[in-house]
Amino acid sequence: QAQMQESGPGLVKPSQTLSLTCTVSGGSMTVSYFSWAWIRQSPGKGLEWMGVINYDGSTYYNPSLRSRTSISRDTSKNQFSLQLTSVTPDDTAVYYCAREKMGPFDSWGQGTQVTVSS
Questions:
Q1: Cα 89 to the center of its chain, rounded Å
Q2: What is the dihedral of CA 88, 90, 93, 95, to 10 degrees?
Q3: SS3 assignment, position 66
Q4: What's the pLDDT score for residue 85?
């Protein structure tokens, strides 16, 4: 099990970039059977998988978000980050970071509310 914590601004203005960081303790980001994911949840859409970064730095994104989404990592700090550009109020959600272990999620952060509003 890894301990994971999301951090970042809770309010973002439309057209700006949403930036969040997940800090990981108790897990290695360079072990091949782990992937590191961002998921969000909103009342209208439910849970929505956004993308992952793998042990080697390769990334995969939800096709509906790919053009606006970037996931990166800093292995020296055991952190990975989410950037979502050109946000609108439809991007308002609770954002979670999570770890995938050869399929199922085995660790989650507690989530952080991000509201997109002027």
A1: 18
A2: -60
A3: helix
A4: 98
